[in-house]
Amino acid sequence: MTIAHNSKEEENGKKSSLNFIESMIEHDLKNKLHGDKVLTRFPPEPNGYLHIGHAKAISLSFGLAKKYNGNCNLRFDDTNPVTEEEEYVQSIKEDIKWLGYSWANEFYTSDYFDQLYEWAVKLVKKGKAYVDDHSAEEIAATKGTPTRPGEESPFRTRSVEENLNLLEGMKNGAFNDGDKVLRAKIDMASPNMHMRDPVMYRIKKATHHRTGDKWCIYPMYDFAHGQSDYVEGITHSLCTLEFEVHRPLYDWFLDQILDDKDGYRPRQTEFARLNLNYTIMSKRKLLMLVQEGHVVGWDDPRMPTISGMRRRGYTPAAIRNFTEKVGIAKRNNIIDVALLEHSVREDLNKISRRAFAVLNPLKVILTNFPEDTEEEMSAVNNPEDENAGKRPIMISRELYIEQDDFMEDPPRKFFRLGPGRVVRLKYGFIIKCNDYVRDDATGEIKELHCEYYPESRSGSDTSGIKVKGTIHWLSAKHAVPAEIRMYDRLFNDEDPDGHKEKDFREFINAESLKIINDGFVEESLKKARPFDHFQFERKGYFNADPDTTTEKPVFNLTVTLRDSWARISKK
Ligand code: ATP
Ligand code: MG
Description:
The chain is of the alpha/beta class. It is 26% helix and 23% strand. The protein has 14 helices and 28 strands. It is elongated, with a radius of gyration of 31 Å.
């Protein structure tokens, strides 16, 4: 697999015409294969929260339906009661809506359990399915290998009548989990392993989140998916490449259960799944991170889940633009997570209100600023958006600036503060550093003594003083203490899941969360509502966390200002 540094648009120099799925749909429409109808579906299994890979599948299936005036169904693929939960159903619906899509119908594979069972009986009657007493281990052991045929089960020759009785017994709870399965009778020597008498039903005496205890046998994915597509009238069933080898089975089941040989059939088409470097995308492994407490929950801002990204401050538009840029492919590759971050910056730059925040404060006394007075300055809310207006920020005798905006012995090209140097306070005045005070105990610099030039007021500067640098600042008495959560990548390895001898958890970045408790934000941010976006000037994009309160504002680092993607793609 290769890391794709170029997005689809960049590769082609312009927005490319049609991708292979669009070409297929247009061909089908032209030939009236399904009349004018385009109906797709997104079929999540409700066994975890959606992640950025699902966003790719969602934008594809919903996006195509929209482009061709069609519809997209949301179908919960709920065939495994042991791992599935209502909580996941709710989160999936919320995330799809948040991404900006709406489904035509909400369906559940469990809606079709009666119909699927009837079809199973039909296959048994046709001699195309049989009850096997073998255990899962025995079935696996007799499956053969891609180069060696499997062995036929001794139960394969059971009579139709016996099979019908046993299947009914399975359904009625006469047997225990693992005692029996229903298998399709296809070909144990098929070069496609999925065609070697695949399991159609297994016994699971578990309560289902929707059907309760009505069933104790549950259909396998392969026996449910194509038929569900058929029942709903899906025209284009899109899934990821690992299902390509299942396609003959998808078609085989439909051919066996449907009598109209030339009638309507849904059709499966595969595309490459989204892989991102530095990222894990298996729900099972994401669940491990949650259960073992490596993160605070599915919506931890470091998680690649939609809910994590929402909490981190990513926007639906940024995620949609990203999936669009990635395009669709027929071969697996790995996308650079920097492209996702680039899309996030691109959108946040347009929409986020600028604000001042000082993360590592250093006190500055403006020695010639009158005590007990303050002046109102005017700050631009968003230079990218004229309508965003301005806001007042107060200046007074005591300020905070960032520690690293001062150096005791700065090199020539350091355009910030140092002894005897001048700098502009953004939207404020020019100041000059005359002196600094050291803490006796720690030896650290604890305070700068500066003078300000009253005639250098931003916007009406008549001072004639030339400065090379501008820094952000806060008035100490107006600054609001805040908790600032600085996030970094959750894994410090490009391919945390790609090491044979090492578990992905060994690559968890111990520095992925640093909490700053002694930082300050400007007064206006007391009013920040959860999920509001800001650019903290010179620091990065941040958003208010759901934990934020007026008493104690809490912000998350969404993404830094530095854009490594822009650098890579210019090379
Ligand atoms: P996981 O392996 O993360 O558990 P899954 O494929 O089992 O994912 P489902 O809920 O079955 O998860 O997926 C719903 C749909 O989303 C499927 O059609 C699947 O192909 C698609 N999908 C899942 N992961 C990705 C991905 N990384 N890129 C694109 N599509 C994906
Ligand atoms: Mg799945």
